Amino acid sequence: MHEMSLMEGILNRAADALSEYKVAKVNSLTVRVGVLANVMPAAFEFAFEALTDDTIFSGARLITEVLPIKTRCPQCGKIFEQEHIPLQCPDCHTAAEEILAGTEVYFASIDFEEGDR
User: Fold this and answer.
1) CATH no. for residue 49?
2) How far, in Å, CA of 28 to CA of 62, rounded?
3) What are phi and psi of 52, to 5 degrees?
4) Is residue 55 part of a domain?
5) Longest Cα pair distance anywhere in the chain, in angstroms?
6) Does residue 26 fall inside a structural domain?
7) Would strands 105-114 and 23-34 be described as parallel, antiparallel, or unpaired?
8) DSSP 95
9) Contact 97, 62 (CB under 8 A)
10) pLDDT digits over 76-103, tens only?
11) CA torsion, points 115, 110, 58, 11, in degrees to nearest 10?
12) Within a domain: 117
């Protein structure tokens, strides 16, 4: 289950980003996940719940935004987005081979309240 290691990395980076603030409570963590990242939503949510217990993220809401696949057509050069495969250019119908985005997993924002540490 790679969702656990992905979430662990995300939480470590988010905690590092928060280290310069006096965080009283984290309300939500927004994570962007590409369609091709092969992340199972239920397993991702489970990993978040399991890894945030007794941390500054305890009780926070996980918001997951799904990012489409962005690719470039090798025939006409058009850059386009799709949410499913096979990847095919909407203009010339050539099979697209170059994936520009859609495999990423990263945290996009953190909503938190400041206070005493």
Assistant:
1) 3.30.2320.80
2) 6
3) -100, -5
4) yes
5) 59
6) yes
7) antiparallel
8) B
9) no
10) 999 999 878 888 999 999 998 889 999 9
11) -120
12) no
Q: What pLDDT score does 2 carry?
A: 86
Whole-structure pTM value: 0.84
pLDDT of 55 above 80: yes
Give yes or no for residue 9 having a pLDDT over 60. Answer: yes
Number of domains in the chain: 1
Task: Tell me, yes or no, whether 116 lies in a domain.
Answer: no
Using CB atoms within 10 Å of the CB of residue 98, give its burial: 0 to 12 exposed, 13 to 18 middle, 19+ buried.
Answer: exposed
Whose CA is closest to 66, among 110, 44, 35, 42? 35
Query: Tokens 């005493």 belong to which residue?
Result: 116
Q: Integer distance in angstroms from the first to the last C-alpha of the chain?
A: 34
Domain that holds residue 23: 2-111
Write down the H helix ranges in the chain: 2-18, 41-52
Query: 71: closest CA among 60, 58, 61, 84?
Result: 84
